[in-house]
Specification:
The complex is a heterodimer of chains A (585) and B (597). Chain A contains 22 helices and ten strands. Chain A is of the alpha/beta class and 585 residues long. Chain B has a domain of 282 residues: Up-down Bundle (ABC transporter transmembrane region fold). By secondary structure, chain B is of the alpha/beta class. Classes of the chains: A alpha/beta (585), B alpha/beta (597).
């Protein structure tokens, strides 16, 4: 299956590969001509003294070498280009697949592994297409040609030379079988090393904060050792087989010495014949000597293709029903109908039902890990519900064009991820073609313009990966501006203001209120102040909605929400709370 | 240096630095004797195989005309011996060279990794992480072939060449000289293309680095990409990077491809001359040249040019490797700004008295993030730092851990200047919880235990209970053995914060620094958490940066920081009474409530 998948990439370049192989064939043919000419040189010119042939022969030799070099250069370029094209296609395909994969995929895969597929494994494929294909083909061809030529000299001598073939076949077969698991282990160790380094680099702040450099080095050495040992163990396989091929290649020389010598003595062949056959011998030797290495390269390639294929062949579970690419603006009515979501036999959210009209604001509050973010992930269809339905404008999100739907939702995530790009680039992430004025406007709404303008490079400041170098609150505001710039029908603010101070927050809230009426807002927050004015407040605990209503009704219900309210404003004397309750009634 | 982005090439070195090869030699030198042994073995083996054409010549010249079959058998037996010897040498070479090559790579990788551990935050902040990673893993790997087989093959080939030239000289001096005439020609070709070839490979390594960085970032930022429907745009960028990688590769590899034909053509021309001259000399009366000699000589020509071909190949891979090597060494040479002072002593067990003496700090020259900060914390006190975002709050606490060196002034812990003690002994006594809670891939247990590797399972669970993480952890399918990863699969931001909180507590720090440590945790959990913490914090000095006033209200002292200076200090009541910035901040929290009332 994996090889078939690989072939689907190669197929496009069939004509080119064919041309390359044709040139390879030509060169193989020429390599036969040269020893043949040398044979004539020795037999007719040097020994028989027919010196008038010399200029012609030299001209031929030079001409053929020149042509061979040119053709070799050509087919090397052909195969190299093909391999780069195949790789380009494959990288692109794998990358597009990466972009399509759902959150389930990313929850299970480690970044370093995914990176290894795109780097180390791709390189094994490059080597195969750019070199192994023609090298093996050419050498098999040479072997056959040489054999054919020896057959024309003498059938029995040729048959004698064939003795090595079964041995070669056996060795190839066993080496291939034995080396495969070794390469698999190699690739796994490579992945694992890659993952470790990747996490160490990403987590460098934690490593330093805990002064765990020594521990990291210790763990790294383990990975480093494992990788080295895997490589050395693999080399033990070819250490066993490569010398066998070496001996097999010399076996041919010995056969020629013994049997060929015997035949010349018996005058069954001429001395010139012997020289000629000797000239062909390297063509038989070369493939034999290299066979062991090629078996390695081919198996290495096969392992990599399988690895890539195994990672990406599964279709994402969340996919768009239509590919038409529609662009319509949704109104923003949202309804959850008995929504449940399970992951790994664990209920993440269960039996969620609520309804919001376009333009309304929903506040979601609840304990850590209560399932608040999951609710929003289900709305964006990062996961599909296990049961129940999420409806957007009355249509199940599963039946909507995925990209159009997400395009209508602006989300500022809890875990702010910024790209190593300029601040402008980060804010305009969802709309790369928007004007600077729009970017600035969004930044103003998120109260980010102020601090951005104060930076030496302003909006052109490059922020590091994950926005390192910015404070938590600054990152949150950039992420908010990014979501606002989309001008979405549904705006989701997942704990977006937790790291900004109160004044900034109340400013942002004022700004949010000015957003056009046709934007439904979901605000997940821990601060009562963030959600107090919401049209609907959902209180979540352990994956369920335990209370819902408006601020006033929830305060009077005197449940979780009222408790949270008192915790956050506990300084206010209790008597003051009563008017609030009364006001609510 | 300005921050680097995925699509920016890193600066290229211009000159071919011999020092890089010398440094590489430093890694190779422990294996010198072993390699020498292998080279001697390989030379013996190739000298032995060189006998085979001589054997053949003897058979043709002497034994066949004399019809001596026994002699032919004897020679064949000798050839078999040579074959076995050559196979055994090959086996020994493969065995040892793979060990040596892998050990050298192992050492280089260790060095670059260990050095990376010492580099400051700014090194990591200034470039995409994918670019750092590609150096440690991919670039180092690409040296593997050069180091394992390349070096031995090259030296063997060079010696072979030497021997062959001797054989050729013995055979005929004049023809040898003709043959050697080809070498200066080849050298001219190499000189002609070297500069461009090297440049091309440098550019190629840059493009690879860019592509790698973009892939890494795409994977880590996938949630944002999908929610912002940026797939098409990213795909376009990726294709662009991928195609410039392809282009740079093709450009560089073309230079490599010119090497083979050059060798071929030069060898063909010299060979032709040899035939022509050889025959003329045979014809010349009284000349020492014979038919057999000429034939033998032509056999050597092949053996003369084949090592040169491999040497040319080695030269190509060397140029490729150099472009990676200089990136690797560049990383190893990156200066370590924060390091142990000469004669630094371990920090004695910390009691927890901290003093900032007139501390000034800027990340870059001329920049002033902190301006004459001065305060003193007594053992066991809790200090809260408040102020607008970007005021320098995190910077203050980062200086206590000595993540950066102060510009001027001093930071003292228990009266000891922290720049005079070893960094490890200082940081291992502090618990820092930062804004981003990073989760390593592994089990939850492993992640918490990161704070103290010696901790028992019970201690880990105890720490989790203290931070109120035990409940949700035990509800997970595999409890503490649940596998999580860097992107924090299935953990909410709050849960990740709790886990890293437990991690910090487990380290049993004498000084605890909480930098927005609870921002993603709900207020109820936070309240419970604080109760647990209060008990723990009694003996410890702690710093808390937070926006929630409920979190900081009970601190012994609150510092109000803005624009790098401490504007107000005092406890909650004192600051309220001052009716300054803190008062404003505090009152804004109740604006809402007043409205509600």
């Amino acid at each position: 299956m994996a090889i078939k998948w690989f072939y689907s990439f190669l197929k496009r370049y069939r004509a080119r590969i064919f041309l390359g192989l044709l040139l390879t064939t030509l060169i193989a043919a020429f390599s036969i001509v040269n020893p043949y000419l040398s044979g004539i040189l020795v037999d007719d010119v040097i020994q028989a003294g027919n010196y008038s042939l010399l200029p012609k022969l030299i001209a031929c030799l030079l001409g053929i070498t020149l042509l061979t070099s040119l053709l070799r250069f050509l087919y090397q370029v052909i195969f190299e280009t093909t391999s780069q094209n195949v790789l380009y296609d494959m990288r692109g395909k794998v990358y597009r697949k990466l972009l399509e994969e759902d959150f389930n995929f990313y929850n299970k895969k480690r970044t370093g592994d995914l990176m290894s597929r795109q780097t180390g494994d791709m390189d094994a494929i490059r080597h195969f297409v750019s070199y192994i294909i023609y090298a093996v083909y050419q050498n098999i061809l040479l072997f056959l040609f040489a054999l054919l030529m020896i057959f024309t000299v003498n059938t029995r001598l040729a048959l004698c030379m064939l003795v090595v073939l079964p041995f070669t076949a056996f060795s190839t077969f066993f080496q291939a079988k034995e080396v495969k698991p070794a390469f698999k282990r190699n690739r796994e160790c490579f992945s694992s090393l890659n993952t470790f380094v990747q996490e160490n680099v990403s987590g460098n702040r934690v490593v330093k904060a805990f002064a765990k450099e020594d521990y990291e080095i210790e763990k790294f050495e383990k990975e480093n050792d494992k990788f080295r040992d895997a490589q050395i163990r693999a080399s033990k396989v070819w250490m066993k087989y490569v010398p066998i091929f070496e001996i097999l290649s010399y076996a041919l020389t010995i056969v020629l010495m013994l049997y060929g010598g015997y035949m010349v003595i018996e005058e069954e062949i001429t001395m010139g014949d012997l020289v000629k056959v000797n000239g062909y011998l390297w063509m038989l030797n070369m493939p034999l000597r290299m066979a062991g290495w090629w078996v390695n390269d081919i198996q290495n390639f096969a392992t990599s293709v399988e690895k890539i294929y195994a990672t990406y062949h599964e279709e994402p579970r969340v996919f768009s029903p239509r590919t038409g690419g529609i662009h319509e603006r949704l109104k923003g009515d949202v309804e959850f109908r008995h929504v449940c979501y399970h992951a790994d036999d664990e209920d993440i959210v269960s039996d969620i039902s609520f309804q919001v009209k376009a333009g309304q604001t929903v506040g979601i509050i609840g304990s850590t890990g209560a399932g608040k973010s999951t609710l929003m992930n289900l709305l964006c269809r990062f996961y599909d519900t296990t049961s129940g339905e999420v409806l957007l404008d009355g249509v199940n999100v599963r039946d909507r064009d995925l990209y159009n739907m997400r395009d209508n939702i602006g989300m500022a995530m809890q875990d702010v991820f910024l790209f190593s790009d300029t601040i402008e680039g980060n804010i305009a992430y969802g709309r790369p073609d928007c004007t600077f004025e729009e970017v600035k406007q969004a930044a103003i709404m998120a109260d980010a313009n102020h601090f951005i303008s104060a930076l030496p490079d302003g909006y052109d400041t490059i922020v590091g990966e994950r926005g390192v170098g910015l404070s938590g609150g600054q990152k949150q505001r950039i992420s908010l501006a990014r979501a606002l710039l989309k001008n979405p029908s549904v705006l989701i603010l997942d704990d977006t203001t937790s790291a900004v101070d109160m004044e900034t927050e109340s400013y942002i809230q004022q700004q949010l209120k000015t957003i056009k009426k046709d934007c439904t807002k979901f605000i997940i927050a821990y601060r009562i102040s963030s959600i107090r004015d919401a049209d609907l407040i959902l209180v979540m605990d352990q994956g369920r909605i335990i209370e819902q209503g408006t601020h006033d009704s929830l305060v009077s219900a005197n449940g979780y929400y009222a408790q949270a309210f008192r915790n956050q404003y506990g300084e206010i004397p209790y008597e003051l709370m009563n008017p609030v309750q009364e006001g609510g009634m | 240096m300005a921050r680097n982005r995925y699509d920016m090439d890193e600066v290229l070195e211009d000159s071919f630095d011999v020092n890089q090869l010398k440094r590489l030699g430093h890694y190779i030198s422990p294996y010198k004797t072993k390699m020498l042994g292998i080279i001697v073995l390989m030379l013996t083996s190739s000298a032995a195989t060189m006998l085979i054409p001589i054997f053949f010549q003897r058979i043709m010249d002497d034994y066949i005309p004399a019809k001596q079959m026994t002699a032919i058998c004897l020679i064949s037996a000798l050839t078999l011996l040579v074959a076995i010897f050559s196979a055994v040498s090959l086996r020994i070479k493969i065995k040892h060279m793979s060990i040596i090559g892998q050990s050298i790579i192992h050492a280089i990788r260790s060095d670059i990794f260990c050095h990376l551990q010492e580099l400051p935050f700014s090194y990591y902040d200034d470039r995409p992480h994918g670019k750092i990673q590609v150096r440690v893993v991919n670039y180092v790997n690409s040296l593997s072939d050069l180091l394992s087989n390349g070096i031995v093959n090259t030296i063997t080939d060079l010696c072979n060449l030497f021997f062959i030239v001797i054989f050729m000289l013995i055979c005929d001096v004049r023809l040898t000289l003709v043959c050697l005439c080809g070498l200066p020609l080849l050298a001219a070709v190499i000189v002609l293309i070297k500069k461009k070839q090297r440049r091309a490979w440098q550019i190629q390594s840059n493009k690879q680095s860019n592509l790698n960085a973009y892939i890494a970032e795409s994977i880590n930022g996938i949630r944002v990409t999908q929610s912002f429907v940026r797939e098409k745009e990213n795909n376009k960028i990726f294709n662009h990077l991928s195609s410039s990688y392809r282009q740079s590769w093709m450009h560089a590899v073309l230079f490599n491809f010119t090497m083979g034909p050059s060798v071929d053509i030069i060898s063909a021309v010299t060979t032709s001359f040899i035939y022509v001259l050889g025959i003329q000399w045979i014809l010349a009366p009284g000349d020492a040249m014979t038919v057999g000699k000429l034939i033998a000589f032509t056999a050597y020509i092949g053996r003369f040019w084949s090592p040169i071909n491999t040497l040319a190949g080695f030269y190509n891979s060397l140029l490729t490797a150099i472009s990676y090597l200089e990136r690797i060494f560049e990383t190893i040479d990156e200066p370590v700004l924060v390091k142990d002072a000469p004669g630094a002593v371990p920090m004695p067990p910390i009691h927890g008295e901290i003093e900032f003496r007139d501390v000034t700090f800027g990340y870059e020259e001329g920049q002033q993030i902190l301006d004459h900060i001065h305060f003193r914390v007594r053992q066991g006190e809790t200090y809260a730092i408040v102020g607008p975002t970007g005021a320098g709050k995190s910077t203050i606490v980062n200086l206590i851990s000595r993540f950066y060196n102060v510009g001027s002034g001093q930071i003292l812990i228990d009266g000891i200047d922290i720049s005079s003690v070893t960094i490890h002994s200082l940081r291992s006594q502090m618990g820092v919880m930062m804004q981003d809670s990073f989760i390593f891939s592994g089990t939850i247990m492993d992640n918490i235990r990161y704070g103290n590797r010696e901790a028992t399972d019970e201690q880990v669970i105890e720490a989790a209970k203290t931070v109120c993480a035990h409940d949700f952890i035990s509800q997970m399918e595999d409890g503490y053995d649940t596998e999580v990863n860097e992107r924090g699969s299935r953990l909410s931001a709050g849960q990740r914060q709790l886990i890293s909180f437990a991690r910090a507590l487990l380290a049993d720090p004498k000084i605890l620094i909480l930098d927005e440590a609870t921002s993603s945790i709900d207020t109820e959990t936070e309240l419970l958490l604080q109760k647990g913490l209060n008990r723990l914090l009694e003996e410890r000095t702690s710093f808390i940066i937070a926006h929630r006033l409920s979190t900081i209200k009970n601190a012994d002292c609150i510092l109000y920081v803005d624009k790098g200076s401490i504007l107000e200090r005092g406890n909650h009541e004192e600051l309220l009474a001052q009716k300054g910035e803190y008062y404003q901040l505090y009152m804004s929290q109740f604006d809402f409530l007043k409205k509600a009332v």
